[in-house]
Amino acid sequence: MNIVSPGFSGRRRSADTRLPPGQYLTHDFPVLSAGPTPRVSTSEWEFTITTEAGQAHRWSWSDLMNLTNEEITTDIHCVTKWSKLGTTWRGVPLDTFFEDIDTAADYALAYSYGGYTTNLPLDDLLEHRAWITWEFDGEPLAPEHGGPARLLVPHLYFWKSAKWVRGIRLSFEEDLGFWETVGYHEYGDPWREQRYQGD
Predict the structure, then answer these.
(1) 55-64 tens-digit pLDDT
(2) 36: helix, coil or strand?
């Protein structure tokens, strides 16, 4: 007895080779958040990197705007299985913030206004793999998408690109973030389908 109707094959996957396994293409920009949307003005916004020794390095919004920035065109992939290709952002690579920071840490915990956190290996934030961004598609980043500024780490599932980013804490040992403590994968590589612990 068939339990699947003849000809049913689920959501058709695009032939685009930029789509990781299990993902489907979307042309809109779904809004997913763990909790209410913080409203942070640029006059109040601050970004801090705290080393494993407790040394804090801070940037205001005006500091951020004075750093050399760039346009980034990249694909993004959500753990809920949508992918959006060729997205355009403006931001500052994390390498710029780390130029004068002395650290031997292996891990980073990104934290946000509103209390959200997510963990990443420090190497995944460097070598032009991550940015602090404030524009999407030529417009200021909307609050529901993480404005005024969010972390962008496009080679990992999008929950690692912390919205409303406020800072990064460095450490020798990995501290799990919000979704990671409730069963999401500690790393989150879309190409290896690392959605949940054990994947």
Answers:
(1) 999 999 999 9
(2) coil
